[in-house]
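testing teh design pipeline on a random one, pls ignore if ur not involved
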């Protein structure tokens, strides 16, 4: 039997030691990068839906830098409190805290996950979202929870500023370096190594630079055997488009995780979760990841496609399980904002072990299926042959 391991931020671990694993979190993340205010975030707006939100949030161009009225800034840059909590829920995009940067808050959340029965967290934060290798290692040491670091690059807006000049070879070299040598070399454990590649961000249609990143990612994946998490373009065809390209590039589809399956292969009511959109992924052998558990807020719905609640997500999973693909399902929460953390009134990363496992059982999902989704499927997805 071939010996295999999962690479965590503290080194290799036997796959059967991971325990209950959630496969797509962002423990330490900054999606705002250098943009520090609600107004800066607004400047990043690219879609009509976001400018609609701007009106709803009371935004007007004013004279104060950077071009926004004072009352807007006062409203959106203050402390998160009970009396403004729902304002942030409703207009999440304007919250200056579109980032999780406190190691102490992170330890608090991961500790609660552990107390609820959690064993391992996949941090799907790629380089441009302020991935924090040393921070992840510190959190893992403090809590004893296994953490698997990601790699690669997200959507075009978060690419390195010099992405046009970076060759596919150079991108491949950087991604592979994170896997083989790790990041940093201080301390007894050496560099912090990526244990999977992702989340790799795609638009729909894919941009040239995103395709260049994808080619580099597949080369690193082929050589190392690491799984790839794909964040498909925000379109019903996003996942299938990415699948086709990955097949052209000869990726091992059995090691590809399609993220956000609870909101991509979905059509407007009454069709909903659409078999013609998800089955090709499953039949190709990929993992289908339902990773926005806890998002039960209809204000986040950005199109005619309904945003599901947790019971709806479990129904989607049951459909996939009944079609025979129970060994290809993964779940998570994809938490990226402060008010989603337990400490600040949110559901937190403890939500799956604390509330979703019981809900799965109440909905008559067989216990062995629950165990596969949370224990053996993640271990299989993340395991690589020991060299
Ligand atoms: Zn994503």
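output:
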């Amino acid at each position: 039997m071939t010996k295999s391991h999962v690479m965590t931020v503290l080194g290799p671990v036997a796959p059967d030691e991971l325990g209950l694993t959630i496969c797509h979190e962002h423990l330490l993340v900054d999606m705002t990068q250098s943009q520090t205010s609600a107004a800066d975030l607004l400047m990043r707006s690219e879609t009509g839906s976001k400018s609609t939100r701007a009106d709803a949030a009371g935004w007007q161009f004013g004279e104060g830098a950077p071009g926004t009225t004072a009352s807007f800034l006062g409203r959106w840059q203050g402390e998160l409190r009970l009396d403004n909590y729902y304002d942030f829920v409703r207009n999440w995009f304007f919250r200056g805290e579109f980032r999780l940067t406190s190691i102490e808050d992170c330890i608090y959340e991961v500790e609660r996950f552990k107390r609820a029965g959690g064993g391992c967290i996949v941090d799907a934060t790629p380089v441009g979202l302020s991935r924090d290798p040393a921070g992840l290692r510190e959190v893992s040491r403090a809590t004893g929870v296994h953490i698997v670091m990601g790699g690669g690059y997200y959507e075009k807006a978060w690419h390195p500023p010099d992405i046009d000049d970076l060759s596919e070879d150079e991108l491949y070299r950087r991604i592979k370096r994170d896997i083989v040598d790790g990041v940093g070399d201080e301390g007894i454990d050496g560099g912090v190594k990526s244990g999977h590649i992702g989340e790799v961000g795609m638009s729909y249609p894919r941009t040239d630079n995103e395709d260049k990143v994808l080619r580099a990612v597949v080369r690193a994946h082929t050589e190392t055997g690491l799984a790839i998490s794909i964040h498909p373009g925000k379109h019903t065809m996003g996942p299938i488009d990415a699948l086709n390209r990955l097949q052209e590039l000869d990726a091992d589809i059995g090691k590809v995780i399609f993220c956000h399956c609870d909101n991509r292969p979905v059509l407007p009511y009454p069709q909903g979760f659409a078999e013609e959109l998800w089955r090709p992924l499953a039949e190709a052998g990929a993992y289908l990841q339902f990773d926005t558990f806890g998002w039960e807020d209809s204000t986040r719905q950005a199109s005619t496609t309904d945003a599901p609640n947790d019971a709806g997500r479990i129904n989607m999973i049951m459909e996939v399980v009944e079609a025979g693909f129970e060994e290809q399902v993964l779940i998570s929460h994809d938490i990226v904002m402060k008010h989603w953390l337990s400490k600040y009134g949110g559901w937190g990363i403890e939500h799956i072990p604390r509330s979703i496992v019981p809900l799965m059982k109440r909905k008559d999902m067989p216990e062995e299926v629950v165990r596969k989704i949370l224990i053996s499927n993640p271990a299989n997805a993340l395991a690589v042959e020991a060299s």
